[in-house]
Amino acid sequence: MATDFFWSYTDEPHASRRRQILSQYPQIKELFGPDPLAFLKITVAVLLQLWTATSLHNAGWLKILTIAYFFGSFLNHNLFLAIHELSHNLAFSTPVYNRWLGIFANLPIGVPMSVTFQKYHLEHHRFQGVDGIDMDIPSLTETRWVTNVVTKSIWVLLQLFFYALRPLFLKPKPPGLWEFTNLVIQIGLDASMVYFWGWRSFAYLILSTFVGGGMHPMAGHFISEHYIFHPEQETYSYYGPLNYLTWHVGYHNEHHDFPRIPGNKLYKVKEIAPEYYEGFESYRSWSQVIYMYIMDRTVGPFSRMKRKRSKTGDGTKKDD
């Protein structure tokens, strides 16, 4: 297994590729802008998941766990990726509306994260791989601990915790009014769930989040997006059927090239400019990616591209 990250001494590839594609295919700009159906899709998922939770208030724990893994996990992971979509303001043209909708989409997830996620995720786009800024990259503690098949399996099972807690330990940001709002509304929903329907309903929501972010097909995108299986490539797309449940986040090269295009239109980028994407390695199965990550002894937490900070102390320059 590698003992150091892959280091790049050039800017991340997406900004330059975006300029090249737009110079050749300026019509791609017509794809920019919000998804008009985003609000409806999020509302349906939120209400369906909350209704399912209340319906399970008297269910046995085995039934709750089973439904959480085979049903609730898909809904909560869908909402997590809806929050990802909203972090790019792709539901409404007015940013504050996206933020409120993100707090609403957060409700079934059980833990307040939508506002904080946006802060770190936009840095991941602007400073992809930059050491000390991009919190999507595993910490040195993870690289020391995750060194074999067993520990990689445990890491995959708990990867949502690493993904969520890593930035809070390595690069904490002072909370503001929006984080407080997100926290209060989320606690209000959680407390109401427990008060009116009991702990089992609340546990169903938490379990749906936890199992959906671990050893689960949808969670394969955490690994597939940027973990390096081919040294010459640092971002990978997935073109399988789960894109329909994940806001098409699998089109990840396309998304980083054009973060202002909503997920449901990203496939058009590949159709308009196929020569820019056909040469890349891509995936058809996120489950296979998880298996490859665990079983391939040459792949681990160090399998990520890193860049040094610029002289100004931030990162390499980017376009929006």
Automatic annotation (TrEMBL):
Intracellular or extracellular location(s): Endoplasmic reticulum membrane; Membrane
Name the UniProt record assigns to this protein: Sphingolipid delta(4)-desaturase DES1-like
Alphabetical list of InterPro entries matching this protein: DES1/DES2, FA_desaturase_dom, Sphingolipid_d4-desaturase_N
CDD domains in UniProt: Delta4-sphingolipid-FADS-like
EC number: 1.14.19.17
Catalytic activity: an N-acylsphinganine + 2 Fe(II)-[cytochrome b5] + O2 + 2 H(+) = an N-acylsphing-4-enine + 2 Fe(III)-[cytochrome b5] + 2 H2O
One GO CC term on file: endoplasmic reticulum membrane
Record-stated family: Belongs to the fatty acid desaturase type 1 family. DEGS subfamily.
Location of the Sphingolipid delta4-desaturase N-terminal domain: 1-38
Role according to the record: Sphingolipid-delta-4-desaturase required for the biosynthesis of delta-4-unsaturated sphingolipids and derivatives.
The species this protein was found in: Protea cynaroides
Endoplasmic reticulum as UniProt keyword: yes
